[in-house]
Amino acid sequence: MPAKLEKKPNIVWLITEDNSKHYLKLYDENGAKMPTIEKLAKNGLVFDNAFSNTPVCSTARTTLATGLYGTSIGTMNHRSYHKVTLPDNVKPFSQLLKQAGYYTTNNVKTDYNFAPIPEVWSESSKKANWRNRQEGQPFFHMQTFAITHEGKLHFKKGQIQNVVTKHDPKKVKLAPIYPDTPTFRYTHARTLDNHQKADSQMANVIKQLEQDGELENTFIFYFGDHGGVLPGSKGYLFEHGLSVPLVIRVPENFKHLVGDGLKTANTRVSGLVSFIDFAPTVLELAGVASPKEYHGKSFLSANTSLEKLNKRDEVYAQADRFDEKSDLVRSLRKGNFKYIRNYQPYYPDGLENFYRYKQAAFQEWRNLFLQGKLTPQQAAFFEPKSAEGLYDLANDPWEMTNLANNPAFHEKLLQLRKLVQQHQAQIPDLGFIAESKLVQTSTDKSFYELGYQQQDRIQALIQVADLQLQPFSKVKNQLSLALDNKDDDMVYRALIVATSFDQQALKFAPQIKALLDHSKSIQVQSRALEFLTMVDGFDPSKTFTRLYQSAQHDLERVELLNIATLLKEQRGFIFNQPSDATTPLTENDKLAKMVKVWLKNRWGFISK
Q1: Helices 522-536 and 541-550, interaxial angle, to 10°?
Q2: What was the pLDDT predicted at 575?
Q3: Quick check: 588 and 81 in contact, CB under 8 A?
Q4: CB environment 564-575: b (16+ within 10 A), e (fewer)
Q5: How far is CA 201 from the centre of its chain?
Q6: How confident is the model at residue 444, as a pLDDT?
Q7: Is the Cβ–Cβ distance between 495 and 531 less than 8 Å?
Q8: pTM to 2 decimal places
Q9: Phi first, then psi: what are they for 244, rounded to 5°?
Q10: DSSP 8-class letter at 115
Q11: Which portions of the chain are predicted below pLDDT 70?
């Protein structure tokens, strides 16, 4: 065999943070010009439909690293309370590359929700690159560029007048979901500027490859770590929260590793790919076998043609707790249709989230909503949701028209609903066990193993949650039985379903009041309090304080504070600050900081 075919390719990942494809001229004529990335595109592949499987960094990056959906290994919540221990048979792909002889480097962000594994990287630091490898050793290098991160838009309002942007705010094109204001225009212009700065930074890495004579030996992947960064994108399962730019430069010396139609420069790929596919793709290019546990499949191989790749048309995604804000949402993009399943539909997307609302545009958006100055499409972000959303992206790219109740699309709704249910039956979704309960589960198994051990039980929880999808008259008896179930997790799910039915479920108030008074599960009591306040006009003030003070775990408090925020926004309740609320949480520093700031700002609270 010729020596050239025995040589392994290098692989480089260039990752910009909080970056949907909508900000690049390569995808949108109103986006930023990025000459470095555009040059890569002219010599490679542009994926028009690439996605993260979750719209925030730690959960997205964990899927990239492990090749598994976060819901299957317990890493679906942003900033996992405990770093999850991966089972022995599930190894991050970079660890497998290192074991196969690759020099693996990371500069410098990881942000994983699993416990550190020393064998993952040959080097991980702010100075890490491939130049310390042995002569002739192939390398994998990942480098993150933070200039596009959400935090770069946490500027003071005075900068709108005093700090000039390269892009003219008056000429940017805002999405129709946003109010057309100087604040939004400036914010959009500023993030376009940041993308051009990132482009210049990435040019330096490519220059190093050229200087080292490795450019034509290296697959270069450029992509965003999830969507973002304008309001309503990062943290939400809309297209602008999940879609990412993906450009892959195929090196001249390794074109034989990709299929027909993918060897030609400046090729656009329309097939749908997502982060779950990245690990098996890299391993395929490196000639390393993927673990059978990996959920995705390679999209670059000698046997995968452009025609075959373009037939791929499904991407699943999830959203759970991001910082202190909790929700439970799943989605499926199939072709040009998008299905979103909201399991807590009475929770508006715009519910207070401390970090999100540090952005001036986010603050203004909410203020204009409270003043009644938004169009219905712009206000929808702050209103309760439907249990199901269905969107025709070809005609409604900003997901403003929900077709779920449109008879003309009923068959499409049922098709996508069934696919999501089949996906959940195949891969256990740990998100249906309350996080505060899950992290206290005593087991010698990993969450991954626990999920498959309890696969039938988790499926039963999902079936209770899906009672939302039928008329109340057809499920009221099943719901009543679920509220009486001996399994607290079943009762917990049933309470959320009851609340989603609002006044139709008022008949359950006595039954649920008994749960509030007598259940030994604080998770059940908390959701019972939520139902009684939202549906039956109950005054939660004293009971909330009692529950908060009786909470035995940090995440029980986080869930209660999330409920309190909902009750403040939706029912106007302002709670007395619990007497021990200033006590720092002890188990997780990041959550402790968020909750302390939350209480300090008194969102939903007043001091005693």
Answers
A1: 170
A2: 83
A3: yes
A4: bbbbbbeeebeb
A5: 26
A6: 77
A7: yes
A8: 0.96
A9: -130, 150
A10: -
A11: 1-6, 577-608
Give Cα 502 distance to the centre of its chain.
Answer: 28
Two structure tokens written together for 427: 């891969």
Q: Sign of the C-alpha dihedral, residues 113, 114, 115, 121?
A: negative
Cβ–Cβ < 8 Å for 299, 309? yes
pLDDT at residue 580, as a whole number: 55
Q: Using alpha carbons only, give the angle 125, 209, 194 rounded to the nearest 5 degrees.
A: 65
Known catalytic residues are: 57
Give the tokens for residue 372.
């009644």
* pLDDT attached to residue 591: 67
Contact 203, 389 (CB under 8 A): no
Q: Kindly state the tokens that stand for 546.
A: 């009692």
Q: What is the C-alpha separation between 212 and 133, in angstroms, rounded?
A: 12
Find the length of the chain: 608
Amino acid identity of 495?
Answer: L
User: Would you say 588 and 554 are in contact if contact means Cβ atoms under 8 Å apart?
Assistant: yes
DSSP line for 344-391: STTS-TT---TTGGGSHHHHHHHHHHHTT-S-HHHHGGGS---SEEEE
Specify the DSSP element, H or E, that contains 104: strand 103-107
**Distance of CA 361 to CAs 149, 279, 366, 368, Å?**
15, 36, 9, 10
Give the pLDDT score at 588: 66
Rg of the chain, C-alpha, whole Å: 24
List phi, psi (to 5°) of 272.
Answer: -90, 125
How many Cβ atoms are within 10 Å of 196's Cβ, its own excluded?
18
SS (H, E, C) 144-195: EEHHHCHHHHCCCCCHHHHCCCCCCHHHCCCCCCCCCCHHHHHHHHHHHHHH
